[in-house]
Specification:
By secondary structure, this protein is an alpha+beta fold. It contains 21 helices and 37 strands. Helix 9 packs antiparallel against helix 18 and helix 11 packs across helix 14.
Amino acid sequence: MKKKRFRFQWGAFLLLFFYGGLFFLLFSRMFMLQATGEVEGQELAARAAAKYSKESAITASRGKIYDTNGQVIAEDTLSYRLIAVINEKATTDAKKPRHVVNAEKTAKILAEYIPMDEEKIYKQLTRVNDKGEKPYQVEFGSAGRGISHETMSKIKAEKLPGVLFVNDLKRYYPNGIFASHLIGFALKEENKDGTFTTKGKMGLELTYNKELTGKDGKVEYETDAFSYLLPNSEKMVTPAKDGDDIYLTLDKTIQSFLEESMTVVEEEYNPESMTAIVADPKTGKILAMSQRPTFNPDTRDGDNMKWLNEAIEETIEPGSTMKTFTLASAIDTGVWDPNRYYPSGQYRVHDRVINDYNKVGWGYITYLQGFQRSSNTAMAHLLKLIGEDVFFDYLDRFGFGKKTGIDLPNEATGTLLSNYPVERVTTTFGQGSTVTPIQLIQALTAIANDGKMMQPYVIDRIVDPLTGKTINKHEPVVKGQPVSADTAKQVKEILASTLTAEKGTATDFVLDDYEVAGKTGTAQIPLGNGRYSWGSNEFLYSFLGMAPVDNPQLIMYVSVKRPKLKGDAGSIPVSKIFNPVMLNSLKYLNVNPEDVKHVDDTSIQDYTGQSAEAIQVGLANDGLKPVIVGSGGKIIDQYPKGPQKLVKGNFVFLKTEGDVTLPDFTNWSLRNVLAFKSMANLEIEVVGEGFVASQSVSAGTVISDSSPIVVKLKTPAESFKQDVETPPEGETTE
């Protein structure tokens, strides 16, 4: 058999060599990837994670700002952000366009709903990049953010193709014009990475921006190439950390009284500006603070307004309110003799003449009469008796010429002028030297609080909303004792006489139910170069007062600058703020007029673990009003906490286990209703301000479910108005 001759096939060999080489290279590459896990110096796992790992942000809420009773003053609320899809590639079905088809029409309609010009909206809708290409979608800056649900619904009803909305958070101020210069405002601000953060721009929102700002969280997860969530993939959640909540010393009810009164005076007298502060002299807590002109923090609308808190940041020449502290200095040094006579009218300081406000005075009168008539020359004569150095030492003790240390930014110090003899004299009656309204309030706490001067403050506590833990708690701070308790008592009595004396300057500030003590002020306004304005409409009118005299619960400063008086005395517009606010606030705080003359107090202790029924009897015998919150038995919590002293007539809430029996809320203050609500953990909806007039569920009802209970309140003025308009049958009103 003939053997086949072997023939070398070059073509087959070359193919084998080529594909064998490729296989070897591929195998080697696979081996290297398995061994090192890298390609071109990059981790394959990292590249895969970057491609298939996704991240979604969890937005943190900004901390809330509350009043002293837990009523919301500022919070984040749901809003909407406007987006327009302008790239044609978004539309797959021409019958159902998913992009803006008619930019001109869309711009015209959107301009009716958002604060942006039609032309600018159109420009945004027709925007192109450097390559002449349209972006997929566009936004409209601040004009397209913070859109309310109502506006969003109206825009949606227009059925504009390509116009979309996404959920957003907006800073919301539910009370409108409400301590606006104190609270300030916060706005959305775009970050470098295109995200937005709410940042404080003014007031407490700015000062405590760090504490209020939360930290966003995120959700990390893995997807496939088509962005579908992979089954059994590990989802990693980093929760958002909401900002801390801030509880203020402000009382919403008292602040509302103040805002309402200031608005009435502003509309009637059209002053250049007004400032007012209400404080608790026992602690230094600021309960209300406002000014005019003001603004709505939601819209930032305000005319002829200064973007600063005038009570803290602006100095004034205080006028005759400063005589309060000149009097205190004279009494404390032992030179005050109320029955001693002096020549009123004029007082010469070298080549300068100091006049009383009527230019001629009242002849020889006593120092007490001089103070009651607000005589400048009386203060000049007292300065000689006190001694200039001693007098300025007292002003230093009262905190003038330096910061109070209130927990607010940009506090001014004021300037006490003492270089020349005439400056020292004019300082005694509040001209030349400057102070701040908050310094006057701090100094007055010493007169109202038996000589102890309390530092003013507005932040009660800062709380972690997640844990409820108090991060920072502000306790009352005694700044010193500039005068003795006996001196403070005498000053209060003399201040009270300015309202009751026949020739007293403060008769417009008399209240029917409470005895008030205070000092009026009529300060010339400096024009510069040593010149001052003059005329009934050219003064800064003010009042610095307290009530009740025997045991002051509130102190208050009010100033009205350049009001259009129309024949009224300058004290009238000031009294139209001070009187209703002081009267309504004292009643709201349950300061009973009949108890004012002789204020009795009693002590309470920590009653936790004791029998509620036994403690109830004991507290009632002590003149307090105990309320059991629950079915009785052992006390598990109480409000107020003990041990402390309470004025007789105050409520004490004793919490026990079991269902709650609803009390009769009639004539309860808002503060007591809120305290009961908190202790009972019931759904109580409070409507109105002032005192309880009615309740939706009868007293004595045992509450075992979460059905809402509506409690309606009325201010004393509203109750009085109703009584006058609808007298009982058979009776007439005079």
